[in-house]
Design goal:
CATH topology of the largest domain: Neuraminidase
Shape: globular
Helix content: under 10%
Distance between the termini: 40 Å
CATH class of the largest domain: Mainly Beta
Number of strands: 38
Number of helices: 1
CATH superfamily of the largest domain: TolB, C-terminal domain
Strand content: over 45%
CATH architecture of the largest domain: 6 Propeller
Strand order of the largest sheet: 1-38-36-35
Radius of gyration: 20 Å
Number of domains: 2
Length: 423
Amino acid sequence: MRRHRFSTGLIATLAIITLAALAGTEAAAQQERILHGFALYSGGPWQPYAGVIFDKAGNLYGVTSEGGLYRQGVVFEMTPQANGHWTETILHNFNHDGTDGWFPYAGGLTLDSSGNLFGTTLYGGVNGSGTVFELSPATGGEWTETVLHSFNPNTDGSNPQGTLAFDAQGNLYGIAYNGVKGTNCGGGCGAVFELTPQSGGGWSETNVHTFTNNGVDGYNPESVILDSEGDLYGTTVYGGTANAGTVFELSPQLGGGWSETILHNFSANGTDGSYPGAGLVFDTKGNLYGTTDSGGTVVPGYGTVYELSPAAGGTWTEKVLYNFNPGAGNPIYPFAIPVFDAKGNLYCTTQQGGAYGWGTVFELKPAKSGPWIESVVHSFQNNHQDGTQPYAGVTLGPSGYLYGTTPGGGTNGGGTVFEIILP
């Protein structure tokens, strides 16, 4: 399974960059505040790879991949206090017991309209290949977990990750990064699944699409989102005509089933990005945006931010908005889904680069003409306070500030939840 990229030699090189680099694109960097630090190898949780989400009351929710009561990861809540501090509460400890899932990874959580939390675990369940779970608030402040589906690598895939998405009818969609076995990928090429609530209770799972390594279809999907018509959009890390990943659309058909259309084939050709490591986001005009953690114009390829716009005849046109370039405190290697603010500015994270080499939060501003304008909002540093190497993207909070996680760093080395105050 594909994991995050670490390059110690590159980090060491970038860490040599002096604070003078801050006089450039990070001169207007905003204030960062650590809301919570996780303790590595403690009795508590640590290593949050996924991002955080808000409920209507302003509470934050997230997951850690490690730690907790059984050391298999947790779901946590953070509640703002009147004094400006935040209180952490563990809502669920995942358990490697043959039924519960464990190691919730990069997908994060999704809230329904009733305040229930939904997410995935990479492993566990009755087949050991991952789960979809629901957490429901109960009396006395407790939460009750229900495993909605345990994946089977022989029939419906394995290792679900990425963000889950609800349609208007309450059906839940997501991806299995691997599986179904026997589809030209050894352990399986991955699938898009649908979970449908049943009238008598429980959920029924069906595969919307099973990917195949056939030189046309992509494989190893990252995440899916829905448009207003009920079509699904997502990315695959590999596959397509250049085996550098794809953007795909899945449309429901009148007679049942779904039809797949490849909207874009990435290419490691020195111009386009390649190997998209995250899903997509829509802007208000229906354009799609995403990141690739490789490719671009700078050899050997440090990633891109791209836009896909619908064109005549049902086709889509791709445009690279930004090519990442190492040196001078620049961000490199984005692995996350971008987010837009109300002004149309785009925010995201990179796992490496920045003034200290430990990753960044960056901003892209659309220009009236010409390329988008990039600036570093925050450079993470390995100073036993700040977090390091953010893997997930950032969330725009109700205050207009940015919130996110880092799987490493902090005062106790187990990662952080951070806030970045924007003007």
